[in-house]
Description:
single chain, 286 residues, Phosphorylase Kinase, domain 1, Transferase(Phosphotransferase), domain 1, two-stranded antiparallel ribbon, 8 helices, disordered N terminus
Amino acid sequence: xxxxxxxxxxxxxxxxxxxxxxxxxxxxxxxxxxxxxxxxxxxxxxxxxxxxxxxxxxxxxxxxxxxxxxxxxxxxxxxxxxxxxxxxxxxxxxxxxxxxxxxxxxxxxxxxxxxxxxxxxxxxxxxxxxxxxxxxxxxxxxxxxxxxxxxxxxxxxxxxxxxxxxxxxxxxxxxxxxxxxxxxxxxxxxxxxxxxxxxxxxxxxxxxxxxxxxxxxxxxxxxxxxxxxxxxxxxxxxxxxxxxxxxxxxxxxxxxxxxxxxxxxxxxxxxxxxxxxxxxxxxxxx
Length: 286
């Protein structure tokens, strides 16, 4: 434990919120122990301009997780941040290589993006088999979480328009940079305290000239365009399709294709029969 003196309770404006339980501490350490050693600062060969000063990073409570990543709230240089930790599996070399490639791509894209409706990049660290990406922290959570707290068809139209415009502005900027998001969905749209929206999670985004086909692609079926499901060549239009699904979510506060499994939804969309009935209820998985 002595090597983890940088791992402290998180704070709001310098005031501690609460101490981590032993279980929370141990779980976080198990994901982050590779990031630092005694001295808490990563310096060395191959350091990038975006490299984080680990002596200034404090990791707090986990608030989200993915298949190969966990996201924690934290503080970096006295600023509230979100910290995405990505772990390479030891038993799957191919997946480990893919995750490192996605990390490198995501950091490169985030580093060049600057827009009010795009999540702000702060820093990153690369210490295989664990990588971290540090971004601004948005207290409103995901758009999907917000919508699931609303009654169906209850979101005021004025708010729907405001949210939709924020998303559209962020995506228009992204496309102006010749970048495809490829996983646009309500879970990857984050809300600020003022209900502004920022597009996040660029793990499988790409430059349009480098996207190629969707072979081996790991997106989210319920929001995925037909050409991606069929692993065909795709363009910015796949984001437009996903944006249309998000608009439906805003208007209904429901989960798309929730009367189907993800695989059934993918089949229906690829056969051009999926949009006849997007769904009626909540609580289904992606």
